[in-house]
Amino acid sequence: MSEAIESYAAFSPMEVTGIHFDLPDISPVVYLTETDAPYRPLALHMALPDANSIAYAWRKIDAPRPNAHDVATAVLQNLRADLICVRIFDYSNGVYFAEVDVMGAQGRFSIACRPSDGVALALRQTVPAPILVAEDLLEPLD
Fold it and tell me: CATH 3.40.50.300: does it fit domain 3-137?
């Protein structure tokens, strides 16, 4: 996300409020909800392994074997880098776009990611990183 967009974009903090696996549908849904009123939702459709990884982190259950998000979290911790936040900032052609902000010895930087990866990493931090969603991606409540 460019600094120009970041300077005027408004973001709402969100939290994971549900994960819905509905077989035989191959696309589980992770539900995010604003942490403050008006509590607007955002549904993220994703692949089963990504939703499963988020479910383990959200429920604070250790996976039987480390997955990619566990490994990435261990790398960040061993490098003494902090995940500052996850930002879901755009939606185009049926796809959400996100990035993570990381603070390490080299300073603060952003890395593009899928929203599912950002959420999975945010939930694995010692202190969960904020999940931020651009206001214009949230539907107004009537």
Answer: no
| pTM, to two decimals | 0.91
- Among 19, 14, 15, 64, which residue's Cα sits nearest to residue 46? 19
The one-letter amino acid code at 59 reads: R
Cβ–Cβ < 8 Å for 89, 5: yes
The answer on pLDDT for 1 being more than 60 is: no
Q: Give 5-52 pLDDT, tens digit per residue.
A: 455 679 999 999 999 988 777 789 999 999 999 999 999 999 999 999
